[in-house]
Amino acid sequence: MPDVDLQAIRVKQTNQYVCTVCGFNMVGYYTEYCPFCGAHQRNFIASEKCSQRYRVQGTRVNEKVTRLQSVPSLGLEHAAYRIETDGGAYWIDCPSSFDARLDPVEAIIFTHHHFLGASNLYRDLFLARVRIHELDSLHKICKPFTFDELFTENFKIGEIEAFHIGGHTPGFTFYVFEDVLFICDYVFLKGEGAALNPFGPPVETRDGFNKMMSLIKDRDISTVCGYRYVTDFALWKQRTDLIP
Ligand SMILES: [Zn+2]
Ligand SMILES: [Zn+2]
User: Which domains does the chain have, with CATH numbers?
Assistant: First the structure.
């Protein structure tokens, strides 16, 4: 465990609030309505209380990948994923609740700016570097969060490959690690079919999706890790092929 000042994190938590409707963390401020989902402040809880009420549970996806989510479920929170690489452990995205019992990671890398979770607190706890695409870092809800690295191009970190496709958000980036694809909320599964995330510009989202499919077409992907699902790639592909 790195040498961290837990007391300083607790002090920060006294001025941090979590919207239980969407999981958004208000860092250092409190508003009447949630800046992310618009829920009324009666739905907010202090970060410390959130840590008492929720814990972060890890569910194995495979030997090296674990899905992380708050238990009990915390509103619209999107799953984060922990990846063990030969070069260290990383998170893709970040849980909304702060659970100091989790194992440390080298860095927290974001698909996009929608679910930054308690990344500011985990950054302090793990002494981890936080990375996001520069275009998403510009959004006003990101202001109170600290990013250590703003990337603007595709990159590779600890065997994880990052591909910027934009679309759903301007900086949206998907990741590939070995045979696993990480796409957060780019694609929703609905009934027997699938749909592209409707909360964004539809034409750009479609373009980004096409770009992603062409980037992975020669790869041997077996699993897709999404915001609320982990599924077999072949089945997911069959469903996404039907998207008009
Ligand atoms: Zn909210
Ligand atoms: Zn999103």
Answer: 6-240 (3.60.15.10)
